[in-house]
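Quick one: structure tokens for this chain, please?
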Amino acid sequence: MKRLIAVANQKGGVGKTTTAVNLAASLAATRRRVLLIDLDPQGNATMGCGVEKYQLERGVGDVLVGNCSATEAIVPLPTLGMALLPANQDLTAAEVQLLTMTVGREMRLRQALKPVRDQYDVILIDCPPALNMLTVNALVAADSVLVPMQCEYYALEGLSALVGTIEQIRASVNPDLEIEGVLRTMFDPRNNLSNEVSSQLLTHFGDKVFRTIIPRNVRLAEAPSFGKPALLHDKDSRGALAYLALAGEMIRREEDEAQQVAAAAAAATAAVAPVVAATADGAVADFAAAPLPSPPPASVPTPASPSSAETAGTVATESAAADDAPASELQPAAAAPLQPGPASAPESESGSTPASGEARTPA
């Protein structure tokens, strides 16, 4: 459960601070890491947690204007099992300083909480009873809005204005902002007006209305004077049990939403699987139906060159044939003797030259 929830309603006296303090203590009792932020200059949530607001060295006002970090201003509350970012009247001066800024003034709280968001499971912001710059900072930083509402006519009027503001912030700077739920506080079932307003809330908001109803209870009213939540003041009181039931309902809602998301993801996977299987089967069928490729044309064999053995055999055969041949065939033809050129023969005594065909007689 990782949520940053703003407890807001521009109508005063509907139980915002009581809800923020007691819901934070109830969620901390379920072993969740909880941070409560007091964003009301009156500092009622700070006093309700047992912290003296007049002795604060640092508060949420210093965080908004950048004088310190959120980590430096957070006050641990070991007895309550949670932490507190306190506030006092200095927050009014910080709001005036925010109004003088021209850029990013509505994002100051969101930016300041970024370093510590992962350190807590739930962060609750107690907003002032007005739609001022502090409330706008809370709505910009929050994931959802929890609306405490007294079942009376004026509170119903204020709820319509708050819903309009939520829509404006959702359209401009925080599109993920949603209504966590509407909580009916100080409910008296004996009052006909309370029952009538309750039925109207169920008609218009449906499942957004928490089934848990916070009754009028003396223990809830007197617990802040002791500086502790009703869970520590009187754990068996109807008010303390009602806020424990509210914490349980919020946890169950979170678990149901997680299950629905998981079921939707499983359904989407199941819907895609047959398509993938059909595509694979079609591909296999197309491959089976496709004609086999024709074999390549036979190539004309190239006459093989004689091997070295065949060459050697041929040479041996030729050698044997040469040995059997007669010597006359093996001897080369005798070259004709060179004939000397016609020399001047000595003339005979008779003065005649011998004929070419006659033999020369030696003297």
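The chain is about 45% helix and 15% strand.
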